[in-house]
Automatic annotation (TrEMBL):
<dbReference type="Pfam" id="PF08238">
    <property type="entry name" value="Sel1"/>
</dbReference>
<protein>
    <submittedName>
        <fullName>DELE protein</fullName>
    </submittedName>
</protein>
<dbReference type="InterPro" id="IPR052748">
    <property type="entry name" value="ISR_Activator"/>
</dbReference>
<dbReference type="InterPro" id="IPR006597">
    <property type="entry name" value="Sel1-like"/>
</dbReference>
<dbReference type="InterPro" id="IPR011990">
    <property type="entry name" value="TPR-like_helical_dom_sf"/>
</dbReference>
<dbReference type="GO" id="GO:0005739">
    <property type="term" value="C:mitochondrion"/>
</dbReference>
<dbReference type="GO" id="GO:0008625">
    <property type="term" value="P:extrinsic apoptotic signaling pathway via death domain receptors"/>
</dbReference>
Amino acid sequence: LEEAAFQLQQIFRIDISIALNILGIESMRAGHCRVAFTCFKLAADRGYSKAQFNVGLCYEHGRGTEKDLEKAGFYYCQAASSRHPMAQYRYARYLLQHGPGRPWDRHHKAVALLEQAAEAGITEAQAYLGVFYMRGLRPQEKRGLKYLLQAANSGDAQSRFHVGVCYEQGLGVQQDLAEALRHYRQSAAAGNRQARDRLRA
């Protein structure tokens, strides 16, 4: 009986959190940012990862509350620890740019989070990792190309341009100008200016 009561409490807590988060999203859409932030915060403090992510966004962009990158990082971290993929990406970016602690530790943790987010299908994480592995102190071109292709196949025109560069210059793949042109054309058709410029050149 105690176990059943505990389960009911958990369901009630989760349902309230979901309702508060939805109310927050609707309030944000209606332009009531302070109300939205309050709803997100109440749900986040109950442990709901989607709301924790939304509180992070509010703090990062100053919507409904004062801008505070440290608090944004805290809430992204909370959501990321519950395996929220977009929070993993945002927290990784926070660690690389503003995070506390030793640079190597931050870097290592950030890359692990980016890889988890990329594997979960977050295009931004795939694109970030692709460039990261291409431009690092010790470039890992094949690995970089893998992530750039994932992002390009998810519709990211900038990553498609970078894939073209890889084929043009033979980075992580055998040089193939025809394949480079194909990627540049696809990227340009999606509105990428760099690809259009490259095609003209």
